[in-house]
Amino acid sequence: MLQFNEDQKAVLLKDTKALFFAAQQLHEWVKENKLSDNMAKTLPSLIESHFVSIGKALDYDSHLMKEHEERYVEIRRVNQQVRDLENQLASSKPIDGVQQQLRVLRDTIYNWWTEKGFAHVSEITFSGWGSAIVEFSLSLDASSNALLNDKPVSEKKRKLNKIQDLIDLGFELEKEKESGSSWNVLDTPNNRQILTNMIIGRFPSVSISKMESWAKGGSKNNDTWTIWRMVASIHDLRDIPLLVDLNMNDNKV
In the predicted model, what is the mean pLDDT of residues 28-43? Predict the structure, then answer.
C-alpha cells in the first residue's frame, strides 16, 4: 500500500482533480459536438500535463512521460543558463542577453493570456528568487478600432470567437452594457475554479494570491460582482516555454 505525506497527497489530489475536470469537459464537448479548434488543442495539453505530474508522484514510467521530458530539454537548458546568469550577477561579471531573456518570458505569458481571449496582462515582475509575479487583467472587449486595425471586421469576429470559447469552457460572462462590446467575468465559485484550473494547468508551479472583484456599475449595494484582476506567482520559470527564435549563438544567452 502506497503511503504519501501530506504535501505529496495534496499535490496528487490537486492534479487528479484537474485531470478529471479537463477529461470530463472534453468528453462533454465531444458528446455535444461543441469542441472548438482552440479547446481541442488546449484540453489535451492540460490532460497530458496533469498525467505526467501524477505519473511522477506515483513513480510511474511511460513513453508519454519520456516524450514530455524530451520536449522540455531546451527549457531545462535555458534554466541552467538562468542559474549561470545569477552566478555572474553575484560575481559582478557582465551579463549578456538577460534583458532579451526576460522579455521573451514576459511576451510568452502575455501572448498566452491574450490568446485565451483576455485583453492584456497588466504587469509582470521578476523577483530576486527566480519567480514571475503576474497581474492578469480579466477585461474582455470584442470591439475593433478601424484606425488601428486594417481588418476591423475580422478582428471583431476573432475576439467574439475567443469570448465564445470562454463561454464554452464554462465561464459565466455577462455584457457590461446590452449594446456594448465589453464583457464581465462574474465573480462566482464556478468562474474562480475555472480560472484556477486554467492557470495551474498552464503553469504548474503557480500560486494565486489575489482575485479582485468590483460591484458591477460601481455600486457596493449591487449584488452582481465581477472579477477584474488576478495576481499569481509562477515559482518555476521552466513552466514558461520559450520562443523558438530564442536560439542564439553559443557565446550568447
Answer: 82
